[in-house]
């Protein structure tokens, strides 16, 4: 499973990029608003601190025509831009239209297996089921991931599944074990998933033993 960062913060993206584990970036209107920046400018900055990986920006609008117009504007920034489109009937029309123009899309705000299937059939390059928001609403994301795995296996779908709305590292492992192609992960969770107390204790012990050896 590939690791994406779910962030519009350039410092966070640079830090994870420098570790060699970053396969993509997702942003959304909330993350852009948190940064208080212009979306086009920020997507350009993210492109400039990464190489060769997809960078997702979200198209705004309710009607397909609005989504396509905004999507095209963002996609014109660079080949690496992927357009996030909300999972609605109008969104599906926009996905189909953008695919015909060679623009990659990511169907977002997905909560059911039938939404996953429809977005994949419309031609989305990626679909993003929101695990954390399902859990926030006392709905099982595990059963959704299992259903998707079966559907993808049975029907040979090629759309990549992005486990999104990740709240903690155990969800990253759960998504990977259930065949998700990608997880998009907030910066604090990405850092947390690298840690284990036994790693730190092991380093400390090796340092103490090394120091006790002196200059033999
Ligand atoms: C996915 O691409 C979204 O940006 C994101 O994962 C939403 O997560 P949230 O539910 O924490 O806002």
Structure overview:
There is one protein chain. The chain is α/β, with parallel strands linked by helices. Helices cover 52% and strands 17% of the residues. It binds erythose-4-phosphate. Residues 6, 26, 28, 108, 128, 130, 132-133, 164-165, 184 line the site of erythose-4-phosphate.
| Contiguous helical run count | 11
Q: Which small molecules are bound? A: erythose-4-phosphate
Q: What is the tally of beta strands?
A: 8
Largest sheet: 8 strands, parallel, barrel
> How does the helix and strand content classify structurally?
alpha/beta
Q: Reading side by side through the largest sheet, how are the strands ordered?
A: 1-2-3-4-5-6-7-8
Please report the distance between the alpha carbons of the first and last residues. Answer: 45 Å
* Spatial shape: globular
Helix content: 40-55%
Radius of gyration: 19 Å
Topology pattern, helix = H, strand = E: EHEHHEHEHEHEHHEHEHH
Beta-strand content estimate: 15-25%
**Unreliable segments of 5+ consecutive residues:** none
Average pLDDT, to the nearest integer? 98
Labels describing this entry:
216 residues, alpha/beta, binds erythose-4-phosphate, single chain, eight-stranded parallel β-barrel, 11 helices
Strands, helices and their partners?
Elements: E1 2-6, H1 10-18, E2 24-26, H2 29-35, H3 39-48, E3 55-58, H4 64-75, E4 81-86, H5 89-100, E5 105-110, H6 113-122, E6 126-129, H7 131-136, H8 141-155, E7 160-163, H9 169-177, E8 182-185, H10 187-192, H11 197-213
Parallel strand pairs: 1-2, 1-8, 2-3, 3-4, 4-5, 5-6, 6-7, 7-8
The protein binds erythose-4-phosphate.
